[in-house]
Amino acid sequence: MEEASVRRLNGLQLAFIGDTVYDLYARGRALEEHDESVRQLHRRAVARVNAAAQARAFAAVEPLLSEEEADVARRGRNAHSRPPKNQDPGDYARATALEALVGYLYLLGRHSRLEELFAAIRRTEEEPPCRK
User: Which of 19, 23, 88, 91 is labelled catalytic?
Assistant: First the structure.
């Protein structure tokens, strides 16, 4: 997408694509780190792609953001969406901020910056438990 088009997208539109990109990151990481059945890999990915885990991931990258990136994350965090009843509204807002940021960087083709942020997240993540 052209930069002007990406900049016009609202926070929820950016989070829409960012959710999928983040899910792909989580699935790729599970596959890279574990030689397990697809069912187990799926459970590991799901443990990383939920509001609480993404809120923690956002906390890891928030201090590293440029002013532009922080503005995009703020748009995502402040977007009017209803969290599912089983999710903490604060965690859900921070997760949406992360997804909006990821979507923004992805659509602009800033893949090296995404990799930097994913590396920062990786350094702070604890291995999610995997139920059998």
Answer: 19
